């Protein structure tokens, strides 16, 4: 039978081929929007992206569509980033969009995306390389425009939270062609010539183009190479700049950066005062406890009438000594009686006692004779009696059956 594929198998196979192609799983695509529909119930967006000669179906799911910074419309030229897969139920491939940018600034977005990916691959954004912000900061370096509202916000908050803090300002442009070089130079100046504990670098809010200095490779490298911890303070809540990604700590606004840079000294002082009072109370309570314990100990009879207490102890000791002596003597008598019984039993088993009752030991040389069969007529014998030894010669022998137990 000829083998065949089902429609589902074919679509799934093609889908696996597309998914397995790394180029088709993360790419940017330019085209004109057509038939854009955003379904309110699901939140998903469906549209076609086309150019003069071709078109492709696209979908952007709710989780991505809700982050759009503009309203897509038919006829709008855009850049989208996404991947390709087959929609098996209809047997057609479509683009699954992750991001969308108007093409007017799309090229800039694409450049930044490429720069971000390259810097990320080189380790500039690794979390393990970020430096901790010191818990107690007394000297803050600031790289921003001396004329901007951002610096005034930073100055005000720093003074409120830490009246004694020293602030070192390095003036820099925060937008324009010269801003990247000036910002990076300011960071290096603070590293080389100041004794700042932490650096704040940033500006107030602005358009995407206004914030481009903080997306520059020069500023990213200066922050990364800084020996002092850096807090980014670019005034935008939603998007992250490259400076935010490389900084040791990101603040959404310059005001928040100042709050993160120094502790609230008034709050700390209040906490210290509270701990001091608690320590004093705890020490006083402990001293009172020990004092009460000492009073109870001193009230014991051993301290009030030591002679009486010691006298009773001596009487108890003497009684115990007498009891011990009596026990030793009694044990001695018991052991003495047991020894006498053992000696008497051993004496009864003595060979001399046996000989004194009329028995004798017959020997032939060094061998003791126990049976008649061991002797022959004419054999010489020695007979041991209780009072001496007799030499004898065997004249005759006769075996006699004895009663045996």
Describe this structure in words.
The structure is a single chain. The protein has 405 residues and is of the alpha/beta class. The chain folds into four domains: 7-104, Beta Barrel (OB fold (Dihydrolipoamide Acetyltransferase, E2P)), CATH 2.40.50.140; 137-263, Lumazine/riboflavin synthase (Rossmann fold), CATH 3.40.50.960; 300-349; 353-393, no CATH class. It is 42% helix and 22% strand. It has helices at residues 7-20, 62-65, 106-121, 149-161, 179-193, 217-225, 242-246, 254-261, 265-298, 301-304, 306-348, 351-356; strands at residues 27-38, 45-50, 55-60, 77-87, 92-102, 139-144, 166-171, 198-203, 230-234, 249-250, 361-364, 367-368, 380-385, 388-393. Strands 1-2-3-5-4 form a five-stranded mixed beta barrel. It has a five-stranded parallel beta sheet with strand order 7-6-8-9-10, with helices on both faces. Strands 12-11-13-14 form a four-stranded antiparallel beta sheet, with no helix packed on it. The longest helix is centred in the C-terminal third of the chain and has 43 residues, at 306-348. The radius of gyration is 54 Å and the shape is elongated. The protein starts with 6 loop residues before the first helix and ends in a 12-residue tail after the last strand.
């Amino acid at each position: 039978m000829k083998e065949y594929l089902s429609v589902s198998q074919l679509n799934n196979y093609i889908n696996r081929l597309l998914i397995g192609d790394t180029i088709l799983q993360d790419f940017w695509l330019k085209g004109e929007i057509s038939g854009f529909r955003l379904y309110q119930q699901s939140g998903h967006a469906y549209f076609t992206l086309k150019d003069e000669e071709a078109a492709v179906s696209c979908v952007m799911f709710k989780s991505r569509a809700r982050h759009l910074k503009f309203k897509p419309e038919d006829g709008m030229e855009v850049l989208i980033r996404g991947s390709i897969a087959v929609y098996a139920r209809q047997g057609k491939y479509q683009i699954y969009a992750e991001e969308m940018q108007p093409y007017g600034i799309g090229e800039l977005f694409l450049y930044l995306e490429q720069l971000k990916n390259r810097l990320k691959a080189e380790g500039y954004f690794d979390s393990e390389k970020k430096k901790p912000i010191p818990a107690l900061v007394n000297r803050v370096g600031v790289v921003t425009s001396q004329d901007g509202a951002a610096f005034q916000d930073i100055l005000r908050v720093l003074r409120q939270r830490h009246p004694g803090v020293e602030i070192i300002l390095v003036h820099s442009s925060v937008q324009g062609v010269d801003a990247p070089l000036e910002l990076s130079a300011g960071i290096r100046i603070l590293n080389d010539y100041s004794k700042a504990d932490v650096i704040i670098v940033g500006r107030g809010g602005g358009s995407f183009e206004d914030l481009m200095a903080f997306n520059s490779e020069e500023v990213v490298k200066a922050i990364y190479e800084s020996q002092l911890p850096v807090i980014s303070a670019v005034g935008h809540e939603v998007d992250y700049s490259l400076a935010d990604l490389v900084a040791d700590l990101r603040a959404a606004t310059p005001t928040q950066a100042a709050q993160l840079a120094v502790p609230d000294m008034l709050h700390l002082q209040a906490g210290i005062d509270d701990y001091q009072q608690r320590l004093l109370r705890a020490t006083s309570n402990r001293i009172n406890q020990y004092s009460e314990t000492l009073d109870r100990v001193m009230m014991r009879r051993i301290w009030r009438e030591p002679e009486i207490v010691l006298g009773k102890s001596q009487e108890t000791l003497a009684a115990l000594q007498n009891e011990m002596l009596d026990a030793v003597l009694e044990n001695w008598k018991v052991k003495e009686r047991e020894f006498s019984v053992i000696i008497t039993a051993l004496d009864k088993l003595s060979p001399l006692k046996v000989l004194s009752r009329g028995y004798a030991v017959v020997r032939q040389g060094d061998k003791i004779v126990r049976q008649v069969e061991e002797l022959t007529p004419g054999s010489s014998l020695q007979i041991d009696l209780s009072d001496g030894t007799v030499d004898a010669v065997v004249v005759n022998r006769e075996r006699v059956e004895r009663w045996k137990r």
